[in-house]
Amino acid sequence: MDSDSLNSNNKKGAAMRLRLSDKWQDFRERMRHKHRLVVLDTDTLQEKFSMELTGLNLFTYVGISVIVLIILTSLLIAFTPLRNLVPGYIKPELKEEVIRNAQTIDSLEVIIDQHEQHIAIIQDVLNGKEFRTEKDTTTHKVAEEEVVYRHTRADSLLRQEIEQQRKAAKEKQKKKRK
């Protein structure tokens, strides 16, 4: 690059900086310019309220108002039943109830399957078909002799910890009842 092109680039950059600083100065002056906000009664034209504002004051008041509104809305949602309307929020009691219902449904499905198998066998016997003895894997019981229990130190510690937690929970329930 020759010195003329560098010189012209420097001049353009300087001119642009001047324009930006002039714009910034204009903006600052407009923000500091005072305006008067007046509320009048339309019937009597009597002044009810007046306030002197600058652009900067107005920006500050609006910003603070928005922040306060957001905080109040958040508190309202967090500490009232409105939080139940927030998607993804589930009450702990409701969650436990859903788990209990799912377990109940699973056990009922197993019982229904067993009853359907029992009815099918009875129908086969009544119709004179051969009696089929299918082993039901869902109700297979293991004899106690087949199970070998080996207690380890970790098992004992875990059992003690669980027992302590249960005792503490029972004591809390007793205190709540009183």
Overview of the molecule:
This protein has 178 residues and is mainly alpha-helical. It folds into two domains: 3-85, no CATH class; 92-177, no CATH class. It contains four helices and two strands, in the order H-E-E-H-H-H. The longest helix has 35 residues, at 92-126. It starts with a helix and ends with a helix.
List keywords for this structure.
single chain, 178 residues, mainly alpha, 2 domains, two-stranded antiparallel sheet, 4 helices, 2 strands, 8% strand
Outline:
The protein folds into two domains: 3-85, no CATH class; 92-177, no CATH class.
Structural class: mainly alpha
Order of helices and strands: HEEHHH
Order of strands side by side in the largest beta sheet? 1-2
Tell me how many strands there are.
2
Proportion in helices: 55-70%
**CA-based shape:** elongated
Separation of termini? 91 Å
Q: How much β-strand is present in the residues?
A: 5-15%
Radius of gyration: 40 Å
Uncertain residue segments? none
User: What's the mean pLDDT score?
Assistant: 81
Count of alpha and pi helical runs: 4
Which sheet architecture does the biggest sheet show? 2 strands, antiparallel
Question: How many domains make up the coordinates?
Answer: 2
